Amino acid sequence: MSSTIESLRVVGGARLEGEVAVLGAKNAALKHMVATLLAPGVHRLSNVPRILDVEIMGNVLRHVGAICARDGTTLEIDVPETPNPEAPLDLVRQMRASILILGTLLARTGEARVALPGGDDFGSRPIDLHLGGLENLGAVFELQHGVLRATAPDGLHGAEVFLEFPSVGATENILLASVLAEGTTTIGNAAREPELTDLATYLTAMGAKIDGAGTSTIKIHGVRELHPSDHRVVPDRLEAGTYAFAGAMTHGHVTIRDCVPAHLRMEMTKLADAGAVVTSGDDWITIEGPDRPGPIDFATLPFPGYHTDMHPQMVALLSVADGTSIATENVYDARFRYIGELNRMGADIHTDGQHIVIRGVEELSGCEVDGCDIRAAAALTIAGLRADGTTTIVGAHHADRGYDGFVEKLTALGATIDRI
Ligand code: UD1
């Protein structure tokens, strides 16, 4: 591991207590930023987290010709009449969400050139469902030297798309392309994630005609043009959930404010099954962590199932449970890299295909670990909060990609954590 990479140093043993407020969802804000390109003029997005991925997306938009300015958690995006139809290779490689620019630019300019996306390494992450859906709408693709060129020789037109899997990104790409297509598009087996519903709300405020967002059948009636709009980004259920797990892991007492408890129903149910006392109101959740968690079984699924992005945090918690738990990862084929890192800390976890068997140990012991993606960095931090001694998580930039003020918020709750 290179010593030039920034790391997080967590001293275990503190019991987290107090209140923490969450900001808007990364996985919504990034999509809304792309969606602005559908309507020329000035858009204002509020409740936007100050995270690395938002900065990267800002640079993608600038390359396309938009002017992006930030004032605290508000982003003002001025979209040109004629965007440049090309997204830059080096930026797209860094972030999978940039693939959404494909459907958006195609709808807006009739052409899009996008490098094949990168993002977190969770095994193979194809985009066949994105491309198949857009083809139904009239798109034609050509791959040359790693750059995907999309055109719509006869324009985009409404179509029926039935997804083999309710992919979040594919549903969004097709939604973004179809709002300006001629006629009606139906997306069957659509994703139902709250961030996608929030995108539909924003598009509707821009003048789009969308029915059924949040259900598995979305109908889009294409309109000729959209207008700019202002929008407050839906609260980040993953940020909220991560602090809930940090509270639970440390036998703490933590209240998470400005969140939507209904968006975390399954995760909080499972947390309660593991022994936490969970109470909630309109926009808050309070967690009282158990002395030692109990073992549970859980399986990740598309919303409203247990979120795959909350899986590493739960496995970290269960690593110190009083018994054996089994987790099943159904969304990604290889989201297991962090497990080796937890085992370096003394956890007893092994995988068998998509299953993870977690034999709870009494104590973890701090050491240097690799925070290989956003949620892995979060899970290892949670583990470090309870471990004996100091845990150094190499790759702090991963936490910065997903969490606004990660170190500051945990410190305010009583954690001893800093950057080195
Ligand atoms: C989004 C989230 C990510 C979250 C995921 C699932 C963003 C920026 N990222 O990712 O944090 O983990 O939803 O909730 O919002 N798949 C295909 N073909 C496709 C598209 C997807 O096989 O064309 C597969 C993927 O490889 C993966 C699964 O479907 O195994 C889920 O992917 P998808 O729902 O598309 O996730 P993303 O939109 O990439």
Individual helix count: 14
Into how many domains do the coordinates divide?
A: 2
Oligomer: single chain
Tally the beta strands.
Answer: 23
**Distance between the ends:** 14 Å
Proportion in helices = 25-40%
**Which residue ranges are poorly predicted, with pLDDT under 50 across at least 5 consecutive positions?**
none
- If classified by CATH, what would the architecture of the largest domain be? Alpha-beta prism
**Mean pLDDT over all positions:** 94
As a percent range, the share of strand residues is 25-35%
The helix-and-strand class reads alpha+beta
The CATH topology name of the largest domain reads UDP-n-acetylglucosamine1-carboxyvinyl-transferase, Chain
The main sheet comes to: 4 strands, mixed
What's the arrangement of secondary structure elements?
Elements (H helix, E strand, L loop, with lengths): L6 E5 L5 E5 L4 H10 L5 E6 L5 H13 L2 E5 L2 E6 L9 H6 L6 H9 L1 E5 L12 H9 L3 E5 L2 E5 L8 E3 L5 H11 L5 E5 L5 H12 L3 E3 L5 E5 L8 E3 L4 H13 L3 E5 L7 H9 L3 E4 L3 E5 L8 E3 L11 H8 L5 E5 L8 H8 L3 E5 L2 E5 L8 E3 L3 H13 L3 E5 L1 H7 L3 H7 L3 E4 L1
Parallel strand pairs: 2-14, 3-13, 9-10, 17-18, 21-22
Antiparallel strand pairs: 1-22, 1-23, 3-5, 4-5, 6-8, 7-8, 10-12, 11-12, 14-16, 15-16, 18-20, 19-20
Helix pairs in contact: 1-2, 1-7, 4-6, 5-6, 6-7, 8-10, 8-12, 10-12, 11-12, 12-13
Bound molecules: uridine-diphosphate-N-acetylglucosamine.
